[in-house]
Amino acid sequence: MGLIEISRNGRAFLVDEATDRSYRDIDDAIHPSFWQEYKNGDWEPETFLAFERFLTSDHVFVDLGAWIGPTAIYAAQIAKHVFAFEPDPVALDALEKNVAANPDLASRITIFPLALGDDNGKITLYNDNFGSSETSIFDLHKRGGSVRKITGNFNAEAVDSLAVMKMLCSLRNVFIKCDIEGAEYSLLDRSFRLLSVVKPSILISHHVENLNIRGNVKFDLFRKKIMNMRLLEFLQRFDEVYQFSVDSWTPYSWDLAVNDLQSEKGIPSPLFIRGAYDNELSSG
C-alpha cells in the first residue's frame, strides 16, 4: 500500500492507504471506507465548514480527539500550529503515519499520545476495536436508539485536563476542537472557571448519548438534563455561540438554548463558541 491524495474544500494532503478503516456513525450505520467518506464530503461537513469560517492563520489549533488525523492535518493548512491529542495506540500510529506523509505540514503538528483526565496517570478507555473513532471513557454507547456494551478496553496515559487547559489558554489565540466521546462534560466541569474567564474559541461535540446508561430511564433523563444545564450555564459566559443548521453555522441564541433544554431535543451538537480573542479581531 502507498499514499493516496485526499482533497476537501480545495485543501489537499496525503494519507497512508493502510490507515483507511471502517467507522460507525451516530445512527449506528457502518461505513466501509473512512477516507472515501471524507473525500465525498459526507463525514462531518459541519466541522470543515467551521474551520473555513472561523479558523484563521493567527490561531493555534488544538485537536482533542485527533484520531487518525482528518481534522489535525486539514487544520494545519490554515492555523499556524496544531497540537493533536490521541491516546488510542492504533489510531496514534495511523495519525503519525499520516502526518509524516505530509512533510510540509508535519513541522506544524505536535502530537501528544495522551488522554485528558482528572489527574496524571492511567485511565481506562473503551472501544470495540483499537483504532476506532468511538474510543470513550464509557463502556456503554447509545447508537441508533439502542445501547451497546463495549467489551474492549485498554489503559491509556492521561494528563490532568485542567493543567492542559491552563497551558493552552495561556496562548490566548487558541482554537480548541473537542470531540472526546462524552469526556467533554468532565473537561468543561473541571475547567469551567478558567474557560469562562479566558474564553478561547471552542468547537465542541458533546455526546450526551454516551453518558452512562444503566437502564434506569428516569435517572438517565435526569442526568442528561443536569449535564445540559451545566453546558447551558457555560454557554451563557460567551457573547457568540453558533449551531449548525442545514448547511451553515447560524447564531444560537439564549432563547433557543432554553427552549432546547426544556424539550426532549436537548442542546444541539456540535456547537461553535467564539472566543474573546476572535471577537477582538473582528471588532478591530
What does this protein look like?
The chain is of the alpha/beta class and about 280 residues long. It is about 35% helix and about 25% strand. The protein is built from 11 helices and 17 strands. It has helices at about 35-40, 45-55, 70-75, 90-100, 105, 160-170, 185-190, 190-200, 215-235, 255-260, 275-284; strands spanning about 5-10, 10-15, 25, 30, 60-65, 80-85, 110, 115, 120-125, 140-145, 145-150, 155-160, 175-180, 200-205, 240-245, 250, 270-275. Strands 7-6-5-13-14-17-15-16 form an 8-stranded mixed beta sheet. Strand 3 (about 25) and strand 4 form a beta hairpin. The chain is globular. The mean pLDDT is about 85.
Could you give a quick summary of the protein structure above?
With 284 residues, this protein is α/β, with parallel strands linked by helices. It has eleven helices and 17 strands.
